[in-house]
C-alpha cells in the first residue's frame, strides 16, 4: 500500500508530537553557576531522561545552592522540579525533593509555601521507610509554624515530633524541638513549664554529647536566667555555650560573637565592668580578624560599659557607630539603640539632641506597629489558607490517584501514536504483551479479592468472639447480681436472726468478690486489646507478691476451711509488679474457687535455669486438657488475661490437671540474681542519671 505525501507528512508530525513532552523535560536554566559541583549536576540533569532521576538531581542542586549561599541560583531549579513533580508517582523521590524545597523556602523566608510543601513532603515520606528523613521534615515544619506565630499548630507539631522520635528511637532533632517548645512556653508566660523544658533539653543534650545541641541548650538556659534577672546563675551556662562552640572549630563568627555579647551583657548587669570590658575587647578582635568591622551588638555593649563609667561622650560615639546599619536592616533593634542614645544625651543635658532622637524613635515605633498589623493580617490569611488546604486533603489524595491514572493513559496514548510507524512489524508482539499485561492485572485483582475475603472472614471471626464473650460475661454477672439482690431482700426482713444474717453477709461477700473479679479481668482484657497498658519491669520478690495476694482471699479460705501450704521465699524476678499481682491473683482465685471445702492449696517457689517459677497446686475438681470454659464455670477471661500479661513480661504458663484430682499451674518469669544490680527500675535509673548530671 502506497502513502501519499500529505499522509507521510501528517504521520511524521504526529510521530514527532509524541516525543515533544520528553524533549520539554530535558530543558533547564541555561545560566549555570561557576561552582564545579553545580556544573556537574547541571550536566547530569541534561543527560537524564526519567522524571524520578531528574527530581533526584534537582534536589541535590537546590541543596548545593544552599550550601554555597546562592539561593537566587536555586529558584529556576525549584520551579522546574515542582513542574516535574506533578507527573511523578514515586513517594520517596517526591518526599525528598519536597523536603529540599521546604528547606530552601525557609532560607528565603517564604513561610506560607514552607508549610504547604513540608506537609506534602511528610505525607510522601510516611509512605516509605525513611523514618530519619521524616523526623527532619517534621522539625522543619514545627519551625515554620514558629516563624508564622501559629502557636497551636507549633505546639501540636512539636508534641508529634517528640512522640515520633521516641517511637523510632531517633533523637537527633529532639534538642531543637525542645528549644522550640521552650520558646512556646516562654512566649505564653508559662515559666514553670519553660524551666522544666530547659532542664529536659540540657539533660538530653548532655546525654547525646552533641556540640551543637550542647551549645543550643546552654545558650537558652543562660538566656532564661538573664530574663529572670538571675545573672549569677546564667553566667556559667553562657560560658559553657562559648566553650562548646569554640571546641567545634571552623564555626560561624556570628555565633561566637553573639555568645561573647551575652556574656558581656550578663557581666554588665552584675556591674562587673572590667570583666565585661575584657570580653568585649576579645570579641571585637575576633570580628576584626574575620573582616567584620561593624558588629552592632558589641559596639552597643561597649557604649553601655562607658555609660556605667560616666564616660557619656565615648558611650554615645560607640553606640552611634552602627546606627546607620540598624536604620536600614533592623528597625526593631533600632528602637533600643535610640533609647540608649536618648538616655545618654539626657544625662549630658543635651535636650535638643535627645528631642530629635525621640522624634525618630516615635517614627520607627509607628512604622513597626504598621508592620506588625500587616504581619498579623498575613498570619490570619496564612492560617485560613492552611485550614482550607487541610479540609481538602482527602480530595487532593483522590485527585492524585485520578491524575496518576490520567497520566498513565496519556503516556499510553503517546506510546501508541509513536509506535504507529512500526505497528505492522510489532502487532503480534504487542498483542502478546497486551495479553500478558491483562493476565497480570487479572492475577493482581484476584489476589486483592482473595485478600479482602480473608480480611472479611477474620473480622467476622473477631465479631463472633466478641458476641460469645459478651454472652458469657453477661451470664457470669447476672447470676451473682441476682443472688446479691435476693440476699439484700432477705436481710431487709425484720424477722431475720443473727445466724441467718451472718450467712447472708458471707454470701454477699462471695457475690461481690465474683462480680469484682469478672469486671477487673474484663477491664484488663479490654486495655490489652487497645494497647493501653504499659509494662514497666523491675526487680520484684514474687514471694512477697504472693503473700499480699493471699491476704485478699483470706475470707474465702476461712469460709471453705482450705489448708494453704506456702513455701519459703524470696523468689526474685524481672517483671512488672502490678501485672505480676494480677497474674498470681487470677491463678489463686481459680484454686480457691474450684477447690471443695476442706481442700488443700500449696504454693512453692523454684528457680529453673534462668527462670523463676511459682507453682500453685490445688486438690480441686480438675479439668480435661481439651476442656473449654463453660458459662457455669466462668468466662475463662482471667486465664486469658494471665497469659497476655505473662507474654508482656516474657513469661509463660504451664497447666497440669486431672479431673477429680486437682490442678497444678506453673508460672514462669524471667529470673534475676538478688545481688545483681545491672537490672534496675527505669524510673529509678532515670532519676539517678539526673542526679549525677
Automatic annotation (TrEMBL):
Alphabetically ordered keywords of this record: Coiled coil, Kinase, Phosphoprotein, Signal, Transferase
Name recorded for this polypeptide: histidine kinase
Keyword Transferase recorded: yes
Superkingdom classification of source: Bacteria
GO molecular function: kinase activity
Taxon lineage: Bacteria, Pseudomonadati, Bacteroidota, Cytophagia, Cytophagales
Enzyme Commission designation: 2.7.13.3
Entry keyword Transferase: yes
InterPro entries assigned: HATPase_C_sf (IPR036890), HATPase_dom (IPR003594), His_kinase_dom (IPR005467), HisK_dim/P_dom (IPR003661), HisK_dim/P_sf (IPR036097), Sig_transdc_His_kin-like_C (IPR004358), TPR-like_helical_dom_sf (IPR011990)
PROSITE patterns, per the entry: HIS_KIN
CDD domains, per database record: HisKA
Reactions catalysed: ATP + protein L-histidine = ADP + protein N-phospho-L-histidine
Domain called Histidine kinase: residue spans: 472-673
Uppermost EC category: transferase
Annotated stretches, region: Disordered: 674-693
Signal peptide coordinates: 1-24
A Pfam entry, by short name: HATPase_c
Residues in coiled coil: 379-413
